[in-house]
Amino acid sequence: MTTTPSPSDRPVGVDLQESEQNRAVIEAIEADNANATVRHMPGMVRVQAPGRLVINRESVEARLGREWETHEFQLAIISYFGHIKDWDDDQILIAWDR
Question: Domains in the chain, please, with CATH?
Answer without folding.
Answer: 11-95 (3.90.56.10)
